[in-house]
Amino acid sequence: MVGVSHQLLLTLFPGLYVIARFSPQENLRIDYARSSFFAMVKTDAELAVVCEQGQLPPGARAERDRRLLRVDSVLTFALTGILSSLVVPLAEAAISVFAVSSYDTDYILIADREIEQAVLVLEAVGHKVHRSKN
Question: pLDDT tier at 24 (50, 70, 90 boundaries)?
């Protein structure tokens, strides 16, 4: 296993999230203002959305039942290895992740059926996971 160069504090959000794919021309109507987490990426090939599962429009192509972990630090752009300190141990445990970065920090989404194992793996390499109540 690759040595972990960072010991991070993570928050596990309650509830389920979804990673959805739409046509890049899709005109979505999702009220993200009340959401605890919402991300959108548009390319010439797709429009990808990560949101709370209950906000997903019916019939959308999506990976459902995901849990959200947030790195609880403001990360400067000069830092390196933050995501690898999370995803390498998870990959070695055969746990798939979907990563999203904001300006301030990083997030990873993990299948709900694998979240307890993921928490054990992350804690075993020195990270701390806090379970958010809201």
Answer: very high
Helix, coil or strand: residue 91: helix
Q: At what angle do helices 115-124 and 82-92 cross, to 10 degrees?
A: 120
- CA–CA distance, 74 with 41 (Å, rounded to integer): 21
84-116: per-residue pLDDT in tens? Answer: 999 999 999 999 999 999 999 999 999 999 999
The torsion angles phi and psi of 74, rounded to 5 degrees, stand at -85, 120
Domains and CATH numbers, the chain: 9-131 (3.30.2130.10)
Beta carbons of 24 and 44 less than 8 angstroms apart: yes
| Triad 74, 80, 84: Cα angle to 5° | 100
State phi, psi for 73 to the nearest 5 degrees: -155, 150
Average pLDDT score over the chain = 90
Name the token pair of 130. Answer: 């806090």
